[in-house]
Write a structure and sequence with these properties.
Layout lengths: L2 H6 L21 H83 L1
Amino acid sequence: MCIMCFLVGSCPPPKSRHLSKYTKPNKPKKCDLKKKDLKELKTSIYPKLHEVARNLQAQRSGVSKHSQKLRTALTEQAEVIHNEIYTIIKDMQSEIDDIDAQHLAAIDKQEKN
């Protein structure tokens, strides 16, 4: 693309002083090729790129939401497990207290005899 094409935004007419007069007539102009590429970039590539970016954002958001749900479920499960362990420990302590009472009763009985 020559300076004139860049500044004006299009190729000037062929009668004006332009670098295109030095190109072969069978070859498409570089300006035309670049315009075609730019049009393809704007109409095809950019929209796909933006859609991919939106999809990535949605995936990132989905991962965060899923991770938060997993954390919440894990915390709830931990509470259930802690409660079960606490109940088991309390039952075992009760059993120990019962065994202690039985042993003390046996010792008291031996002392009296």
